[in-house]
């Protein structure tokens, strides 16, 4: 055992030395980065000046001394007078004011980190005080306890003699420690603590194991020893003595116990010990002593309750639990009143929040079999803390101001907890989460890093503990059930903690604040939405679940936006981003799983979602014109998602009404896109007017691309069948819609070209429009042949039809002729070349494709008509010149 202790001590010593070496190396690196010091430079510069200049140094009156301060370092060193090295008596202010000797920047002192403090504490424990004496007293104490147990089992000595020898040993240690209190202070306190502990165990053994004295006499002896140890500790201002005495007193019944006996005697003894701690708290603010008593009392009480408690022991156990609870509430009050003036308002957070948490946990074990036991206990505890709040504010003064705020938080927590407890709630995780938020709040007020980290860990543990219960909804009422309210408290605790951390800028945390605030915010939101969604799935009718989910998400986002604006909660400024992501996730099942997006009352849910989304964007525009790129993405993605959902919904309804064989759904595909596109181009209201460029470019461009795709692939693949409605070329619904699409697309292209610094031109749009127009007219020709001649609407049939091939050849030739005539009139040489290329394609087609139909009337007509048209082209549409000045020299004009 000693070897292990020495090894651990040596390891700690090496770690401390390594830490010191790291600090030394860091300081040397900072000095090297700051450059050589003035003291190292000045003597060398002075020697060089004296050696190179035989003349005496100039005086202050010389004109050369009037050089400005902003000269270079070289000229300064050459022109300044050599001076002897400043004496040790020269003041630091004079050196600092000398412009020729700027002082090197000194690194600012760095606040000790958490690791530094931990190393220092371990170092002090192993290097300060008398470690051997400490270990010896502990070993002696355990040895005496084991000796008593062995002697009692073996019957070696009479009982009275056993107790006498042990008590004599305790008195000897106590007397020796008191005698050496002035010469060997630490040593003396250790001896006194060991003596008091031995006397404790002796008195308890005489009372409990051997029944040598009546109960009244035994407890009188215990009371005397408590008063004695408390008096010795207070007189010598020795918290270590008090801690040793209290530790021995608490361990005495545990070590001497045989597993039998009355719990009344045990807890009465602990009540006497806690009374001694309370008495010492009246005079001294010894936090460690209070914590030791708290831990021993409630840990031993918890173990007893786990191993021995039964419902027939409720009255006595309840009375002692209340007594111990009041003890430590009063100790916390006394502790706050005994702080120095510079620590007014200091709150012992461990006792303030640990006592109600542990006490309520034990109370739950006592009354969990009663129907409303937890609810009544929580309500009474809330009323108790509310009373303490009023008392602290009315009678406590400034020293109790922060304590009253903590009690108010506890009162609100326990009163609120009584609701789920009354509804059969799971109290443990809920209590942990709310207490974690309360501990975090008080830790931030006191600038306690460890307390804050513990509070965060407590909330995470609460969530992990509560998660299985959150998935099991066994209540009859929606929302008004313990599981939902418990999950709600976990979510609220996480959100409140994130807000508190965001508002605190004094806490020295090992990570930057966003690394804690954002995860806690996400944690709280996950619990909020997860808890709500599970509640909806359990209690809402399946036909209305989809709309309820969408509405829940929308209302939650609206509340978050209101909180961001009301509380200036900057972390919630990304709520529109999260809402848009949720909408995108919801769009997937709406498009691919449901029959149509607005199925199952989805229209109500989507209306709420888009209302909340654009409401948040409107608030963002009113609040700050920041992050424009993100706003561009939000507006454009939201608008396109809206068009997609409405378009798919309209197509479904049209197909549902007209049937799958009709081309009405093809027309319906653009009946949402075209009006929306015109709204983007012409609207003068928010949000289009406020973000005109965003909607023109980032919304208009995808819509334009869709219209081009619809024209090139979807419209051309449609036969133009509309039920009983006859097909009339250019006057049927499909062709009229196509004209509207082409016109809309050209207007959208002009809007895209209207912006500054565009790489696209209007001529490119015209060329694209001409190509789409040509493709559409070809489709109109084939549709007309299909409806008027009975040509099958099939690509193979069209390619094999001599009539279709002849009609296409003639149409292409007429198109080329019309374009060439227009190009000649306008002087568009490139356009004329494109039309000529089209005619060349027609000629090649005649000899490669139509030649096979030369024995048919259609093939013959195609050759004749194309030939005549080519002659007309050569006469009426010569090649335009390259430039206007070259018209007379163009051979085509001859």
Describe this structure in words.
It is a single chain. The protein is mostly helical and 894 residues long. Among the domains are: 280-422; 430-529; 801-894. Helices cover 74% and strands 0% of the residues. It is built from 33 helices and no strands. The protein has helices spanning 2-34, 38-52, 73-79, 92-97, 114-127, 131-154, 159-179, 185-208, 215-235, 239-256, 263-283, 287-308, 314-337, 349-367, 373-396, 401-422, 427-446, 449-470, 482-503, 514-539, 542-567, 575-592, 602-623, 628-658, 664-668, 673-682, 692-715, 733-753, 762-789, 795-800, 802-826, 829-848, 857-876. It starts with a helix and ends in an 18-residue tail after the last helix. The relative contact order is 0.02. Mean pLDDT is 74; it is low at 1-15, 37-108, 340-347 and 885-894.
Task: Give a brief rundown of this model.
By secondary structure, the chain is mostly helical. The protein has helices at 2-34, 38-52, 73-79, 92-97, 114-127, 131-154, 159-179, 185-208, 215-235, 239-256, 263-283, 287-308, 314-337, 349-367, 373-396, 401-422, 427-446, 449-470, 482-503, 514-539, 542-567, 575-592, 602-623, 628-658, 664-668, 673-682, 692-715, 733-753, 762-789, 795-800, 802-826, 829-848, 857-876. The model is unreliable at 1-15, 37-108, 340-347 and 885-894 (pLDDT under 50).
